[in-house]
Amino acid sequence: MGVVNMNNKNQTCIDECNKCAQACLECMKMCLEEPDVANRKKCIAKLHECACICKEAASFMITDSCHAIDLCKLCATICEECAQECKTFKDDHCAKCAAECQKCAQECKSMQ
Predict the structure, then answer these.
(1) What InterPro entries is this protein classified in (predicted)?
(2) 65-83 pLDDT, tens per residue?
(3) Of 25, 52, 78, 89, which sits most exposed with the smallest number of CB within 10 A?
(4) Backbone region of residue 97 per phi and psi (left: phi > 0; alpha: psi in -120 to 50; beta: other values)
């Protein structure tokens, strides 16, 4: 729910983007602590990219930017890429992050 504007028409997507950004940053932190961290460079980079675009998409929706839908489309693409990359690792944190990225992608795709 919004803090000031309780009726933001994009609130579900805003919440999902913020949740996905958090999941990606948490997963990135955990990937950096894994013994095979060198094998996770691509995943870590994609997690960072995904967290960044999710935060920006949320900001654009909150301010009702005329480019919010365009950014949401890009966010959906990056979320899907991140989910695929996370799925290459068998850790619980990667599986949970992949699921969160897929939820966010679906929500962003539904933006009109």
Answers:
(1) Csp_YhjQ (IPR005560), YHJQ-like (IPR044543)
(2) 999 999 999 999 999 999 9
(3) 52
(4) alpha
Does any domain span residue 93?
A: yes
Task: Record the tokens describing residue 76, joined without a space.
Answer: 């959906």
Q: What is the pLDDT of residues 15-27, one digit of tens each?
A: 999 999 999 999 9
pTM, two decimals, is 0.92
DSSP secondary structure letters along the chain: --SS-TT-TTHHHHHHHHHHHHHHHHHHHHHHTSTTGGGGHHHHHHHHHHHHHHHHHHHHHHTT-TTHHHHHHHHHHHHHHHHHHHTTS--HHHHHHHHHHHHHHHHHHT--
For residue 25, being part of any structural domain is answered with yes
Residue 99 belongs to a domain with what CATH number?
1.20.1270.360
> 23: closest CA among 88, 84, 83?
83
